[in-house]
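Task: encode each sequence below as C-alpha cells.

Item 1
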Amino acid sequence: MTEQVAVIGEALVDVVEGGETHPGGSPLNIAVGLARLGHPTTLHARIGTDAHGDLVRAHLDEAGVALGPDTLVPGSTSTAIARVDAEGKASYEFDIDWDIPVPEVTGARLVHTGSIGALREPGATAVRAALGAAAPGTLLTLDPNIRPDVIGARDEVLRRVADLAALCQVVKLSDEDAAWLAPEATLEQVLSDLAAHGARFVVVTRGAEGCLALVDGAWFARPARPVVVADTIGAGDAFMSGLLHALLRDGTDRLLAAGEPLQDGAVLAALEAALTSAALTVARAGANPPTSEELDEALRASRE
C-alpha cells in the first residue's frame, strides 16, 4: 500500500464580510494541513472553472495537494459567506453544489471525509460508496462538522453519521456537533454512542477546554494549549490534520486499521499534536494550518 492520503469532500471559497476571499471547506483545509505536514495527499472534490476555482487550485498547488481525476468541472465553485464575531468565532452561509462521481481511493493508506461532503446529497452517496470500497487495512476517518442549514433532514443526517461511524475507525467532532447530534446527551454519552457504532478512536474538541477522547473503552481528557486567539476559522480542521498526522507518523494508523490495541502513549501523542496544531492555527487569521517544521518546533517547546 502506498503512503497516500485521500480526502473526500467540499472545496469552496470563504467570502468574508468586507470582501476578502479565502479558500475553505473543512475537507480542503484538512487536505492542506496534511500536505503541509508532509503527507502526499489527494483531494477528491468539486471545483469549478471560475475565478474562485482558480483561487482554490492555487492554494492547493502551493500546499502540494493533488486533485482527484474528476475534481475539476465546468461552472462555478461553491462559496461560504463567513461572518466573524467580536470573539473571533466564525459563522457561515453556504452556496454549495455537491454532485460527484464515486472517488477512486484504491491504494490509499488513509481516507478521510467529513462535513457537507459526507452528509449532503447527492454527493454523500458517492462518498459512502468510496469508503465502502476501500481496501482492507485502510484507515477511514470522519469529521462530521455539522452544517445544519445545508445537509438535509435531521433524521437522515443522524442515520448517515451513524452509518459512517460504523465504517470509520476514527471520528472527531466538536462540542457544537455533539450538541446538534444529541441535544440532551452529555459529551461522554455522545462519544460512547459513536464508539458503539464501531469507531475505535472518538474525540470531541471543546474549544478553550481542550478535548475529550474515548479510545477502545479508555477515556482521555487533555487541556487546550494557552494561546491568544486571532480567529477560530479552521481550528477544528487543524486539530484533525494534526491528529491524523500523528497517527500516520507513529504508525498508530496501522494498529487502528488492523484492530490491534493502542498504547496510552500513542493516544496522548496524537492528542498533543492535534491540540498544538489547532493552537498554532487560531493564533493567526484564517484557516492557516502549520507546516511540519512549525508543529515540531511547538511540540518541542511544550516539552521543555
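Item 2
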Amino acid sequence: MVTAGSSFAGDWAPAKGPIDKAPIEDPFAEAIRPISNPTHFDLAIPRTQLHPIFIYNEMPDTVDTILGQVPVGGDYQLYALQFEIALSERLSINATKDGYIVFDPQSVLTQTEGFANLGAGLKYAWLYQPEKKLASNVQLLFEIPLGDRAVWQGTGDGVLIPSVSTLKLAGPFQFAHQFGFKLPLDDNAESTIFYTSAHVSFEATKWFQPLAEISWFSVIDEGDGGPRFGDHIGGALPAVVGFEAGDLVNWGAANANRNPNFVTGALGFRITPPGKPYTFGAAWEAPLTTENEGLLENRFTVDMVWKF
C-alpha cells in the first residue's frame, strides 16, 4: 500500500471540492503490485516506478522426460530490475523482463550463468473508473532474444506477449487478474503458451497487506525440440524434456504436450513504511500440479516497488 501522499507520473488528477475542502485522495493510492509471475503479472494502472526483484528457485530432485525421471535438483537465482514510465493516467512504457540468472543444478545439467532476454512494450488502461476503484488495461510486450543461451535465453526471433489485466479495490480487499499469450515469431524455436494469474490481498493495517496468488501456464503449441542450449547435455534438452519451463524460460520443447499445464500458488505480504513512496514484498510459491513436471519445487521472491 502506498499512502495518498505519494505520487507518480500519470497520477489520477484529484477532483476539486468546495474551496473549504481538501482535494479528493487518489483512489488507487492503496493498490499494491502482485509478487509472483513478475515478468507477466502487474497492475492495470500505469505508474512510474522501479521494481528490483530477487528470486530463489529450488528445482525438483527429478524431472519428467521421454527417457524417464532424470535427476536435476539444485536451484537458480534471478536478479532483475523492472521499470515503468507513465506517460499519462492511462498509458505507460513497461519494461518487464531483464536481469541476470545464476543456474546451479545438482545433477546432469551444467552450472552456468548469464543474462536474461529483454522484454518491454506499452500498457494502456482502456477502462479507468477511479470513482469505482476499477481499471483494466491491454498490454503488448515484445521479448527480444538478447540473453545468454547458457541460461536458456537468446533463441528464436522474439516473442509477442499480448495481455489484459484488471484491478478492483473493494474496501480493505484488492483483486487483480491478468491473462495473456506468449506468441513466438519462430514457433519452432519456442513454444506458444497461454498464461493467467490472479491476486487477492487484504489491508490488515495501513502498512501490512497479506496476499495470495495463483498462476497457470498452458502450452498451446509445442516447439520442434531442435538442438539448442549446447551447455546442457549437448543441446538435446528440448528434444527430451516433457514440459515447458514456466515464466522465465521457453525451451521450444517438442514433448511439452506430455505435461502441458503448470499451476503454482503463492502466499506472501507487502509492507509499506508510513509516508514512504516504496513498498517491500515477499512471497513463497509452490507447484499445485505435479512437481517433476516443471522446474519449480519451491520459490522465494522478494522485491521492492519504488514510485516516483
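Check on item 2: Helices lie at 237-240. Confidence is low (pLDDT under 50) at residues 1-23.
End of task.
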